[in-house]
Write a structure and sequence with these properties.
This protein has 83 residues and is an alpha/beta fold. The protein has helices at residues 18-29, 56-67; strands at 5-6, 39-43, 46-50, 52-53, 74-77, 80-81. The longest helix is centred in the N-terminal third of the chain and has 12 residues, at 18-29.
């Protein structure tokens, strides 16, 4: 399994590849603190999102944020909604 970059480690986003860093920044910009725990990797223009969130709304918000990044042609949203 490829390494996922977690968005919640402050100061570590500068070590992420540019598209993953941009996704992390967009997730933070949503204002939803829980989206900082979403893992992200980008390969060949596909953003892979992983993590656990408490609502489908947050899952879709993460997907929308990732899809807005230039160069992302698809999002594989593997986030699990927990209750």
């Amino acid at each position: 399994m490829p390494r996922l970059y977690m968005t919640h480690h402050e100061g570590s986003s500068h070590r992420m590849p540019p598209p993953a860093r941009q996704i992390a920044e967009r997730l933070r910009a949503t204002g939803y603190l829980t989206l900082r725990d979403v893992g992200c990797e980008v390969r060949d223009g596909v953003a892979y999102l992983e993590g656990r969130l408490r609502s489908h709304y947050l899952k879709q918000t993460a997907q929308a944020a990732a899809s807005e990044v230039e160069g992302i042609r698809a999002v594989d949203n593997r986030i699990v909604v927990i209750r």
